[in-house]
Amino acid sequence: MVPLRGFLMDNLDRPWMLWSLFAVNLLGSIYGFYWYKDQLMTTASWLNLFVPDSPTASSAFTLVLLLYALRRRSPLIEAFAAVTLFKYGVWAVAVILLGGIAATEPFLESLHWTDWMLMFSHTGMAVEAILYSRFFTYQRHHLVLVGSWTLLNDGMDYLLDIHPWLPASISHLDGWIGLFTLGLSFVSLLLFARLGLPPREERKWSFRLVGM
Length: 212
Description:
This protein has helices at 2-11, 15-35, 37-41, 53-69, 75-102, 107-110, 113-132, 140-159, 174-196, and strands spanning 72-73, 208-209. By secondary structure, the chain is mainly α.
């Protein structure tokens, strides 16, 4: 396990790893938007920007990986990807598990294979955000901007009821889940202030700046 961890840490920013993860995250993002197709079609078009939370997060990280592979960086996209990738990764796993626990069927019987797939992929999202935080170059004002968007998105999701559809067993708990989501936004922002702001020699300051 230790040699594997060392191998992973040593290769996170190697071109072959960046391009491999780029492909994986790109395909996952495309599937994520497809997953939301029914909800997007039943939501007013002007609100669609706030609907596909997870694929928007993974798309941002996909762009970060592409920029790194091209020796470019965008601190604002880094900050957005870090906070939202972790937040929605943790959120999805927590909600699926809670839905399984609250179901009338036995826990293992209540979960479909897609639930296990989603938990695996969303755990990967959260882990990616933490692992790649060592390279990020965002500053406090980038986190302020991302925090403003994230809190706005929470408000839109739970005040206008356009949050991701919940498992039927916990659909009546949307108010409590809204509070959990809001708290998770603050946890994510604080976590990536801690991980992304202190100086580290791995940060990609030498990469050409693109945008903010």
